[in-house]
Here is the input.
Amino acid sequence: MSAYQFRLDSTLFNGSLFNSHRFRNAFVLRKPRHPLLRIALGLLGLGVLLTLVFFSVFVGIAMLAVGVLARMWKLRGKPVARDMGIVEGEFRVIGKPVPPRA
Here is the structure.
C-alpha cells in the first residue's frame, strides 16, 4: 500500500490534479488483504443483508395483516351473501340506444 494513498494535501485539489487518479483513489473502498478479515467482513455483510430481509418480510406481513383487518373492520355489521349465485344490488334497466335519423 502506498504511503501517499490517504494523503490529502492541497496539490490534489488544484485544477489539473482534481480529476487525477490520486484524488479518485483516496476515497475508494478496498477489500482487506488479510484472509480472516476478509471472511469476517463478508460474514458481517451477509448478516446485515439477512437482517434486512428478515425485517422486511415481517414488515410486509404486518402491512398485509393491517389491510385485512381494515377491510374486516370496514365490512363489520353488513350482511354477507350466503349463496354465491346471488348478486345483490340496485339495478336500472335502460333501453336499447336508438340511432339518430339523418
Summary: Residues 35-74 form the longest helix (40 residues). The chain is about 45% helix and 0% strand. The mean pLDDT is 80.
